[in-house]
Amino acid sequence: MKKIKNEAAFVKKAVQVGENYATKRGYAGFSPTMSANQKIEALYRLLVLDKLIVPVPPDKEDLQSMKHKLALWIQKVLPADDPIFKE
């Protein structure tokens, strides 16, 4: 897995955008007490279910891989002139 420059910022943005996507899709599972890691896993699984991202093999499925996949997804979704690309 190749490290993405500014991956943490991309993951943070992916969680924000992903929460909006999930809510519009009808997912009501996010609560204020839900940890960031739980949100990341829920969003990863939702995006895999909707076939928006390719899942990692089950034997290599961990939080770091999920974060990486979310970062790759948000890079494709965001416009090229988004300020996050310049950080």
From TrEMBL:
Domain of life the protein comes from: Bacteria
InterPro entries found in the cross-reference section: DUF5062, DUF5062_sf
The protein's name in its UniProt record: DUF5062 family protein
Record organism: Marinomonas phaeophyticola
